[in-house]
Structure formats: C-alpha cells, structure tokens
Amino acid sequence: LVSRKKQPENTVIAVNGTRIGGETQVMIAGPCSVESYEQLQTVASALRKAGIKVMRGGAFKPRTSPYDFQGLGIEGLKMLKEVADEFGLSTISEIVHPAHIELAEQYIDIIQIGARNMQNFELLKEAGKARIPVLLKRGLAATLEEFVHAAEYIAVSGNSRVMLIERGIRTYEKWTRNTLDISAVPLLKQETHLPVLVDVTHSTGRKDILLPCAKAALAAGADGIMVEVHPDPQTALSDAAQQLDIPQFAELWEGITSSGLFK
Ligand code: PEP
Ligand code: MN
C-alpha cells in the first residue's frame, strides 16, 4: 500500500491546515519531554512567533535506563493539548502502548511511534486503527526495507496517513549519537509515496551541526525537519545535551528559512 508503484502521487497529510508531503516543508520543534506548563508555554510562544505550526513533546518516554525520567504520561498529553490550544499549534507525541492509541486521539494531532518501537507490531496495528496521522521513526538498526514494512503494517491496518522519519542509525561512529543516513531520504521518496522527514537532533545528538544536516536533508528531498528545543536545556529531564535553547533554535530557523531550501 505504501509503495510508489501502487500510488505514483505523493501522499499529502493535512494536520489542522498544515500540509505535509506536498509542495511545502514542515518544521516540527519542541522539547524532548513535556515537563511543565511553563516549559511548554515558553516553547509554544517562541514557535508561534517563528510561524511554526507543529510542536513536539514526549509524555511517554521510552528511556534506555529504567531509572531515568519516564515522562508525565497522560498528564503530559493533557498539558500539550492545553498549551497547543492556547497558542494555536498542532501537536505530536509518542505513544508506546497499544491501549493508549484511542487516548492519543483525544489529546494530540499526530501519533509518534519511536525508534525503539518501530517493530512493535501490535502497536503498529493499533496505530493503523487511529483516526489521526502517524509519524513512524526509523528503528535504531533498521534497514530501509524493514522501515517500509513497518509503515505497511500501519497502512494495512487501515490508516494510510503515515509519515516516515529518519532519525539516525547505530554505527561505529562516536562523534555523533547516531549516523544520519541521508540516502534514506531519496530512497524512501522513491520507494514510497509517504512524506519523509528528518530528525536532525536524534540523528546527530549534537547542537553544532544541525543547520548543515537540515540543509542536506532538505536538498535530498525531505518534507520536513524535526528539532528538539527546550527553554533551559541544562535542566532538561531527558536529552539535556542535545536540545537547543530558544535563541539557538531561532538562529537555526533563520539559517533554514534563508537557505531557500525550505518552502
Ligand atoms: C523522541 O523523538 O523523543 C525519541 C525518543 O526519539 P527516537 O525514538 O528516535 O529515539
Ligand atoms: Mn529526545
């Protein structure tokens, strides 16, 4: 179903008037985790000022260590909704449990399925029953074929509004947290008709090379970029080292919009 051979035209996914996968690109920005109203409001205000329409924020956090912050759960989804409504933004948040898909529909606009759950087939099937779009992240060590098969699980279960996001894969390289596989962008665009985005933050785990990586993604045909932004990254409860503060995000955004690659 997701194959370009099956459908030659791009799938365009409209989220509250924001079209993803068409002629224009989308920026998705926000904190790694939802932490408080104040944190979200500060980010939301900066996004609105920049004309950015989609805010991210994790409420259910699949952390490598069980002792790390696990997210605010349903409370976090409620906070996202309240702040998004206040600032006129759309939201995306990760769902990790099949039983929470219906709940997600009440509070958020896009369901994120994280890298660690790319092959959680029961979750994929349940996301296939959702009435809202799904952003599927590439697994930590998933081939593109496995990634496309995972998307197919969602589509065949009834939800054709699927977006793919390259977020870096695990290699021997240590200067970046993951290795951004830029070739995934043209290949996924070629093999599927789905929107393809690039998460430059998790791909690199760094703050200093986001602009060239975002430009490369856009030049390769990406339909959008995801970036983590936090009002005070040093105190962030997750991914403190890689989140941009608001002035750093404003600088990145200026670089992206002035590059001519983001329409
Ligand atoms: C995230 O986007 O917050 C996240 C956990 O990313 P990934 O699933 O790509 O590691
Ligand atoms: Mn993160």
UniProtKB/TrEMBL annotation:
Annotated EC: 2.5.1.54
GO molecular function, one term: aldehyde-lyase activity
Domain of life of the native organism: Bacteria
UniProt entry keywords in alphabetical sequence: Transferase
UniProt entry tagged with the keyword Transferase: yes
EC supergroup of this enzyme: transferase
A GO BP annotation: aromatic amino acid family biosynthetic process
Keyword Transferase appears in the UniProt entry: yes
Identification of the protein by name: 3-deoxy-7-phosphoheptulonate synthase
Protein source organism: Paenibacillus faecis
Lineage: Bacteria, Bacillati, Bacillota, Bacilli, Bacillales
Range of the intact protein held here: 94 to 356 of 363
